[in-house]
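Sequence only, no structure available. Ideas?
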Amino acid sequence: MTTATLNRETNTYWNLLKNTSKEVKVALIARLSSSLIADPVPCKAKALDFAGVWDDSHFADADEMVEEIRSARKFRHRSVVS
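Reply:
I predicted one. Tokens follow.
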């Protein structure tokens, strides 16, 4: 991240938070500090886990697949227009 970007982002947050109470600022400092110290949460799913999951062998062509997707849609207040 460039210095200019960092300054712009920190200025944005500062302008948002500068008028808050000391108590709120201290609480935010504590939360931000603990987020830096805490171990990162490992990601459970990766994009590669989904490779090959879609099974489209029961569709004869793309039009049939589109029709099934549209018919499965459920809207509360309107219907899907093709």
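DSSP finds three helices and no strands in the chain.
Hope that gets you unstuck.
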